[in-house]
Amino acid sequence: MKSQITNALSDFFFEYETPRQVLVRNRRVGVVCRLIQLGVLAYIIGWVFIYEKGYQSSDTAVSSVFSKMKGVGYTNVTGTERIWDVADYVFPPQGDSSFVVMTNYIITEGQKMGNCPELPGKHNCSSDADCEGGSFKRTGHGQMTGKCVNTTKTCEVLAWCPVEDDNNIPDPPLLMSAENYTLFIKNSVTFPLFEVTRSNLVEGIDNNYISKCLYDQEDSPLCPIFKLGDIVKMSGFNFETIAKVGGAIGIVIDWTCNLDFNVKHCKPMYNFHGLYGNPDEKDKARASVGYNFRFAKHYMEDKVQQRTLLKVFGIRIDIIVQSLARKFDIIPTLTAIGSGVGIFGVATVVCDLVLLYLLPKREFYKNMKFKYTDTQTQDPDSEAGSTETEVSKK
Amino acid sequence: MKSQITNALSDFFFEYETPRQVLVRNRRVGVVCRLIQLGVLAYIIGWVFIYEKGYQSSDTAVSSVFSKMKGVGYTNVTGTERIWDVADYVFPPQGDSSFVVMTNYIITEGQKMGNCPELPGKHNCSSDADCEGGSFKRTGHGQMTGKCVNTTKTCEVLAWCPVEDDNNIPDPPLLMSAENYTLFIKNSVTFPLFEVTRSNLVEGIDNNYISKCLYDQEDSPLCPIFKLGDIVKMSGFNFETIAKVGGAIGIVIDWTCNLDFNVKHCKPMYNFHGLYGNPDEKDKARASVGYNFRFAKHYMEDKVQQRTLLKVFGIRIDIIVQSLARKFDIIPTLTAIGSGVGIFGVATVVCDLVLLYLLPKREFYKNMKFKYTDTQTQDPDSEAGSTETEVSKK
Amino acid sequence: MKSQITNALSDFFFEYETPRQVLVRNRRVGVVCRLIQLGVLAYIIGWVFIYEKGYQSSDTAVSSVFSKMKGVGYTNVTGTERIWDVADYVFPPQGDSSFVVMTNYIITEGQKMGNCPELPGKHNCSSDADCEGGSFKRTGHGQMTGKCVNTTKTCEVLAWCPVEDDNNIPDPPLLMSAENYTLFIKNSVTFPLFEVTRSNLVEGIDNNYISKCLYDQEDSPLCPIFKLGDIVKMSGFNFETIAKVGGAIGIVIDWTCNLDFNVKHCKPMYNFHGLYGNPDEKDKARASVGYNFRFAKHYMEDKVQQRTLLKVFGIRIDIIVQSLARKFDIIPTLTAIGSGVGIFGVATVVCDLVLLYLLPKREFYKNMKFKYTDTQTQDPDSEAGSTETEVSKK
């Protein structure tokens, strides 16, 4: 017998092992086993590859958003007419992906720094003892001077005077005309892994088209111009409600792309939903209304600094980009195949269990499948015997 | 023969199965098979492990960016000289990751609320009938009063008067000096999965270095101070063009880190490119120019609220952090190995096909590999016979 | 012998192969092999499935954040008392996820456009020659007129005059009262893959609770209202230090959810840490302090445009949402199983190496395991012989 060392290499290259197998001609076991194997095959091909696209790797995008509002608002408060243009009702002005459109406001003009009584309600007092000088109240507008004003029966504070009274929110909202404002969105996404860059101004969405179109889920789902009223409706709000007390709306730009097809088919989808909803609430829309912030315009008058305080109720719009691109990749493909083969192994194991422990002829099959090595007596197999002798010959 | 039940456990622990194999001494099949196996091996080691680093798990970062502009601009419009400092030309002022640097503007001073004629052009009229009172035009500046002004032949509107005339964009841009502004970026990233936090002020980038350095792709790629002119150039724009009509530029901070090495090697890379490009356009840079927004400064004069309206053309800079950290992880490693072994199985299957269906001696090999169990006649194999008899002995 | 072609299909369905195996009754090898296999099993079940939850797929969220500050500040600079409310000290006002709370400031009132001397220090001059007309200095406030002012011995510049002198930062900070401001955070996250939306106002956090609660890591970890002083403390800063020179703090909202449990258990966790730290620094907190920006309020006085320049030192707060949801998924489960089976194969290979190359009786085992096909002489196995003859009979 040749030594293993000398021609191990030639052996290695010119011979190969293939497992010896028992070909069990048994209908029951055969069918069972084939079905299991077919099941595994169906799973791997049907589910992993076709349904879950297991042959692709995926990537999310880095993105950038620019927004621009258009439209003019009109208010008529106690006879004084006023026009609101973009510079007046959008915060911040420079077109971020998150901004607020003012739809209602409480204005407090000509505030000066000074001493004045607090609002009735939370800050009532009967005597100066109730207004500790130099201290603050969490809901107060300023620092208490320690005096209790007789006329109003409230503590006097050092604050921007007169203090804002925001108990009554204008109803109907002052800027219902906001419903007709339009929003233009520019969005570009880059999938670094696949080195693909896309803009929401996809093929065919040229300046000429943009100048005329208005977004509509059915008719023009790629038009990047939206009517504020539509956005509110599509996110399930009632415009008058949200315009009065404010609210937050998310515009989700969904880039789900299969880059195995032409990149032209990688197009955005726009979804709209209310934000900050309370999961408890039945009526999600109701839950998430209510958005406001305070904003001051400062000016000098008669050498005195003054300010106009605006409590702004508005629609806060967050433009959220959500992206997932998939493309064929050899790694996940072979990983899926490889692990699939592994699962095939499981199938065989199951069949063997049936074969060796459940069938009546299991003893017979066991003898076919296994060869024992320890002692002659336990060895059911002439071949093993012959081997033994053959070995002992050495 | 012992019963399986009694000493199943001792059996389980003291014996183990290893498949019986046919050692095919056949040069062709041997070589074919070895090459396939080597191919698989090469793929697993070379591609999965070395090239794709399949032994690592990956994570993206949560990040935070702070930006600060420096520099002074100078304009001389019809003799009146003016200086623009950071507080004047950056929107918003507080150093966000997305901000605008004003490079050109159309200023409309002393606007008051009132009635005045629209601009000639879109709003021409021949009689009051052309100007429906109380209605708005999408491109209009206010609410039409219903009058057609004879002198200008345009509709009269209630608006901020005089209305802005933005037909002529100043050329050359008023703030060409913006080219020399500098931008300082502070960026910190945290990879939660690996609990690693990095700042773009990496080792060696101390205050002393920062006070002197200026970013340069070759010489000082880690200096976090950028000249605006360089940024524009590196993103493929012509400064005068973009300064005139505005444009959007993305500064991508790329953190691609292999944390198996010392964290010191985890350094940022800065890339610059124009945003919102139209994929159709040949000239991407051209496509994505054009960025402006309106901004108003309010003030009181003679007890009348007035405002100065600025139509700002500027360079919008989005600082985008893109991150991918990789580190050794046992799971992907063993998954890769495991599925690799699976693919090995595929290799054997292929070889068997060759062996059993293509080779001339296939019948011979089939008999070597398979043992049939159903009937004596079909059994080519003495051993099976002996087994049969052995079984029948029972 | 039947032809393979005719009833290949019936063969395929009614028979199945199972590998023939040698049952090695050898305590050493047996134990070794079982231990390896048990190890693999333990790894797959214990590590992959239980510890790393390998049966789940994961997803990150798209999120939206709204913040609101409350509280009143008070300053007393050289006798003039002043109150600062939200509209005064928060930048920007509209409640973004990233904003600045002013804690200290240097105010320069009544700046007009004009010529005035630069600050002593960087811009000293002995004669006009030192001040090149029309040029700028990187650290200067404006454009040099070419004159050297005798009184101050500094260059004269065209700038907003008087130029800001920010050499002395007020200490103690003017708005120490900022410590008591409160921050309210509204955050909603959506995991698109699992179609789950959550808000940080989880079950039980109703308006009634919010009106009273204050965040505390132990007692009320779900209360979305934070005291600014606490935030600073929890992120490892000293309030007075950061209030004086400013600093940046990240509030990380961590959504790590196992959606195999009820979604009610998917709750946010709040973490606080300083940003922009220098990795070198021992004392990270020290390293990352220092944050300021300039901000101007414009107004007209006597028909002249003037402005009040504020150099704002403040606490910049970035609210960062970090999310990872996991849920059972069939794909990763079967992939893990499959590759696990693969690794099982590796175990067998290892055992075989022991069996065939290390054991004294290795020759014997080799003969048991392998069957040689090339020549009679090398064939240790009666069976092969019989096959040979059987084949030659054809």
Automatic annotation (TrEMBL), chains A, B, C:
Keyword Transmembrane: yes
Glycosylation, residue list: N180
Residues given in the record as ATP binding sites: K68, M69, K70, T182, N292, F293, R294, K311
Taxonomic superkingdom: Eukaryota
Record-linked Gene3D superfamilies: atp-gated p2x4 ion channel, atp-gated p2x4 ion channel domain
Ranges where the record places region Disordered: 375-394
Alphabetic keyword roster: ATP-binding, Cell membrane, Disulfide bond, Glycoprotein, Ion channel, Ion transport, Ligand-gated ion channel, Membrane, Nucleotide-binding, Receptor, Transmembrane, Transmembrane helix, Transport
Catalytic activity: Ca(2+)(in) = Ca(2+)(out)
One of the record's GO cellular component terms: postsynapse
Pfam families: P2X_receptor
Membrane topology: Multi-pass membrane protein
Oligomer and partners: Functional P2XRs are organized as homomeric and heteromeric trimers. Forms heterodimer with P2RX2. Forms heterodimer with P2RX4. Forms heterodimer with P2RX5.
Family assignment from sequence similarity: Belongs to the P2X receptor family.
NCBIfam families: P2X
Functional note: ATP-gated nonselective transmembrane cation channel permeable to potassium, sodium and with relatively high calcium permeability. Furthermore, CTP functions as a weak affinity agonist for P2RX1. Receptor for ATP that acts as a ligand-gated ion channel.
Protein name stated in the entry: P2X purinoceptor
Gene: p2rx1
